[in-house]
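Sat 14:20. Reprocessing the chain from the morning session after the first attempt stalled halfway. Input below, unchanged.
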Amino acid sequence: MKPLLVFLFLVFVTGCSANKSLAHRLKEADRVIVTNSFDAVGLTFTGPELRKLVQTIALGKKAEPALECAVEFDLQFFKGNECLAKVPACAYAFGVDRTSYIDTTGDLKALDEKFHQANRPQFSP
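Finished this time. Tokens:
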């Protein structure tokens, strides 16, 4: 009984960062819909791409002092019809519970570039 109380005390005192707690919940997601804030264009990811974005959130480093970036896209994680979370992001950071996190993986930058390529105007000669 005593080891359990010590464990619970340590969890309570040290806590778990908001991004890691969220990432743990998002492991249940079956897809993420990423919507561009400016063009209302969306991309849907499942499988490896979904897991990669969950990992990006888990590995985020808390920004101190807090970062401010214009929200370029929202990551909406779903399990069936249920929206598990909506995460605002830009090319280098994301927010969870009003806390800014820096993307340490470069995946948000790659996602931003994917949006720009998918939405590049098509000109005909």
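The radius of gyration is 17 Å.
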